[in-house]
Design a protein that fits this description.
Largest sheet: 4 strands, antiparallel
Structural class: mainly beta
Order of helices and strands: EEEEH
Oligomer: single chain
Number of domains: 1
Radius of gyration: 15 Å
């Protein structure tokens, strides 16, 4: 019997931040405030979260900057 297991990431957009200048590429982009969570799964069914990050995502260069809980709460409001 084969058992398929592993982890898979999910990216959930929390809020669109509007036009911002990316610190990495310098372009004016529509940045997004998001949560990235990794789930342990068996047979492709997510069971429980393994890790989670709060990030700002730049769609132009693809960089994801990790935020602290305080920074995330401040930007969310």
């Amino acid at each position: 019997m084969m058992v398929y297991y592993g982890t898979r990431k999910k990216l959930k957009t929390v809020k669109q931040l509007g036009r911002m200048r990316c610190t990495n590429c310098g372009h004016e982009v529509d940045a997004s405030l998001a949560k990235e969570t990794g789930y342990f799964h068996i047979f492709f069914i997510p069971l429980f979260p393994v890790f989670g990050y709060k990030i700002i995502f730049c769609p132009c260069c693809g960089i994801m900057k990790k935020l602290t809980n305080e920074e995330f709460k401040e930007m969310k409001e």
